[in-house]
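Annual report, structural modelling task.

Input specification for the coenzyme A complex:
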Amino acid sequence: MSAAITYAWRDPISDEEMVDLVRSHGGAAVAGWWSRVRAHSLGWVGARDGNRLLVGFVNVAWDGGDHAFLLDTKTRGSHQRRGIATEVVRLAATHARAAGCEWLHVDFEPHLRAFYLDACGFRVTDAGLVHLPTSG
Ligand SMILES: CC(C)(COP(=O)(O)OP(=O)(O)OC[C@H]1O[C@@H](n2cnc3c(N)ncnc32)[C@H](O)[C@@H]1OP(=O)(O)O)[C@@H](O)C(=O)NCCC(=O)NCCS
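The model returned the following structure:
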């Protein structure tokens, strides 16, 4: 982990900063997305470099009780493979635990198994998924 990076729970991330972060790793940024979803979060972690540039993010949704859900882990393209995402996930887990959650869920594409299982310590479980627009 870089010493110059600082991490904050509920970091005041603007929608413009989120769009820039998503574009930085080649993602399809949608203006307004972060402003819309933020209200439904238990919290989120932002990581910033020494110039306060947003370089990492993870969102934590929840059911209002025991279950928290990790969503949208992102690290700026220029800052990947330095341990930033591992640290934002670790802090997200710490804050979800402090909020009284018992379980932290995540799902991910197969190429990220090493990240979530090995680096972040998640274990494999049975889970289910339906793509609602193309089902029913
Ligand atoms: C996935 C992502 C968040 C990882 O961020 P990161 O800050 O680079 O991750 P870390 O440096 O903490 O990685 C820790 C370890 O996880 C594994 N890992 C990280 N990214 C990986 C990748 N893209 N592919 C395979 N393994 C990966 C590696 O074992 C890595 O250790 P190493 O660098 O010593 O090999 C980043 O690649 C990203 O933003 N990707 C685009 C968005 C995305 O796909 N998000 C996931 C949503 S589920």
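The first strand starts at residue 6 and ends at 9.
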